[in-house]
Specification:
The chain is an all-alpha fold and about 300 residues long. It has one domain (about 15-65, about 70-200, about 210-290). The chain contains 14 helices and no strands. It has helices spanning about 10, 15-30, 30-40, 40-65, 80-100, 105-110, 115-125, 130-150, 155-180, 185-200, 210-230, 240-250, 250-265, 270-300. The longest helix is centred in the C-terminal third of the chain and has 34 residues, at about 270-300. The radius of gyration is 19 Å and the shape is globular. The protein starts with 7 loop residues before the first helix and ends with a helix.
Length: about 300
């Protein structure tokens, strides 16, 4: 009689966390492009995007995760309250940055998130950051420095500050997920989507949307945001916060390139060079970590 092979999450948690986190990052690749194509006020987008993400998430929980839904008292515990708050303000910061600076600036400033996450993990979780991760972080900042020399000054200061605030929120988001006990945080995240709508509503002109704009908002909120966040809620449980942030930095490369290719928002030569530096750092780091994980798994199996 053969026994069932254990899932990847049990056999190799780091590889599982990497795969889920990478898939979540892939969801977000076209997000900046889709927001640009909507072509309306960003706070109006925030209102409807939050509603679309909440409806999709609640529907998914009702169909696939009803058994794991928490009691309402669990939504009053600190991890759930933190996720509601962070999700709520994070989406507002992201869309505000896209509305007030270039897509390249808005996304590339997010490259500060791994460093912020590393500091938070060190201060709160006492989580050691190894030499390869620090090396990758410093290399990413070198890429950001190259980008800043050519494109950062071209954006508006308020938009850049909104992007930096979003980086802080993203770093805190992954640290909270890692700190939280095993449980379903998706209901809290769905409520966070509604908080985004509530925060944005007073600042939104709420101009009527045509069918194309409505469809793009659903794609951005109901598919990209809801699907990506659901996956990125799982990955950080298996990886340190700094490593998760490093993987999600791939969006920072793909987002501006897609906006450039489809609507001609040219990020500039230095942005492309800096982006290549960031991509090389992320790729080298993740391949090294996977190789180390595989060696550790092989050693354990041989023992």
């Amino acid at each position: 009689m053969t026994t069932a092979r254990p899932p990847l999450s049990a056999r190799n948690p780091q590889a599982y966390g990497f795969a889920v986190t990478l898939l979540g990052a892939l969801f977000f690749f076209p997000d900046a492009l889709v927001v640009r194509l909507i072509d309306t006020d960003t706070m109006t987008i925030a209102v409807w995007r939050g509603i679309a993400a909440a409806v999709t998430t609640f529907a998914g929980l009702a169909i696939f995760g009803r058994a794991s839904l928490p009691h309402w008292r669990e939504l009053l515990r600190w991890p759930s309250l933190a996720m509601i708050f962070l999700q709520g303000i994070g989406s507002v910061f992201f869309l505000a940055s896209l509305g007030q600076t270039s897509a390249a600036n808005a996304l590339l400033i997010l490259a500060t998130a791994p460093f912020i996450a590393a500091l938070m993990s060190w201060a709160i979780l006492r989580e050691r950051i190894d030499t390869p991760t620090w090396g990758a972080i410093f290399t990413v900042f070198a890429g950001v420095g190259i980008i800043g020399a050519g494109s950062l000054g071209g954006g508006h200061l308020s938009g850049d500050l909104f992007a930096l605030a979003n980086a802080v929120v993203i770093a805190a988001y992954y640290v909270v997920i890692r700190m939280a006990p095993q449980g379903n945080l998706m209901p809290a995240i769905a409520i966070g989507y509604l908080l985004t709508s509530a925060i944005a509503y007073p600042f939104a002109p709420m101009a009527p949307l045509d069918l194309q704009q409505a469809a793009l908002i659903f794609i951005s909120g109901g598919v990209i945001l809801a699907g990506g966040c659901a996956l990125l809620q799982i990955g950080p449980r298996y990886l340190p916060a700094a490593e998760v942030s490093m993987i999600t930095m791939l969006e920072i490369i793909a987002g501006p390139l897609l906006v450039w290719l489809f609507i001609g928002e040219n990020p500039g030569t230095k942005t492309l060079i800096g982006g290549c530096v960031i991509l090389i750092a992320i790729t080298a780091h993740t391949l090294l970590k996977l190789a180390q994980s595989q060696r550790g798994s092989n050693s354990a199996n041989s023992a």
